[in-house]
Amino acid sequence: MIRNFNNEISRKLIHISSLLIPLGYIFIIKDKKPMVILLIILTLISLLIEYARSNKSSIIGYFFHKHLNSILRPNEKKGYLTGATWMLIGFTISVLIFDAEIAALSLLFLSIGDSIAGLVGRFFPIGKIWNKSIFGSISGFFSCIIFGYAVNNTLPFQIIFFGAISGMLIELLPLKLDDNLSIPVFSGSIMQILQDIL
Fold first, then answer.
1. Residue numbers of the chain with a pLDDT score lower than 50
2. What is the pLDDT of residue 1?
3. Helices 157-172/100-108 angle, 10° precision
């Protein structure tokens, strides 16, 4: 049980480290084209690693089997794409199709909101629904609001609010689609629609 918690913490810490990408987009790169190129390159590298890890006799396969096997989900151990690769795919699609401010927030909602929801839900499984914790999702929602409002001073608060709530709603639902893809794309879509309407 303790080992499972440690593995989940390790996984979520890696997840939170992806925050460097939306923050880099907000404060450093700021331009869509180089960001899309960077994310495409990272996604292709990740897909190559996915292919290489399927061969356990390769260096990458050996490394995954020896050092990262404990934090992989059961379906990832069977050869399905890892959450990290799905995340990069979700990041790339979001940056490609949404306005910069909205794309950055949708990435941030995945990096922060999903991680907080997962950790809080794991340690405080209050209000379980569809094998998820409502308390975890609420915690993820508030973390999205706080971080989103802290880093974005151009979008109206209601857009951030509905983006955060839609991201955590899609995280809570028992969809077959990986939430590393569905959270940024869905929350970004809601925010983009609202921005176009308002």
1. 1-2
2. 47
3. 40
Which tens digit of pLDDT belongs to each residue from 86-127?
999 999 999 999 999 999 999 999 999 999 998 898 888 888
| Single-letter residue type at 196 | D
- In this structure, are strands 128-129 and 132-133 parallel, antiparallel, or unpaired? antiparallel
**C-alpha angle with apex 111: 109 to 114, nearest 5 degrees?**
70
**Residue-level pLDDT at 128:** 86
Mean pLDDT for the chain?
Answer: 90
* pLDDT at residue 3, as a whole number: 52
Pairwise CA distance, residues 139 & 112, whole Å: 10
The tokens 């990740």 sit on which residue? 46
- Which of 41, 198, 22 lies closest to 110, judged by CA? 22
Burial of 171: CB neighbours in 10 Å, binned 0-12, 13-18, 19+: buried
Burial (CB count <10 Å: 0-12, 13-18, 19+), residue 139: buried
User: Which element (helix H / strand E) includes 95?
Assistant: helix 83-97
Query: At CA 153, angle to CA 169 and CA 118, rounded to 5?
Result: 30
Match 């869905």 to its residue by tokens: 186
List the structure tokens of 93.
């699609």
Q: Quote the distance between the C-alpha of residue 67 and its chain's center.
A: 22
Between CA 107 and CA 197 the distance in angstroms is 22
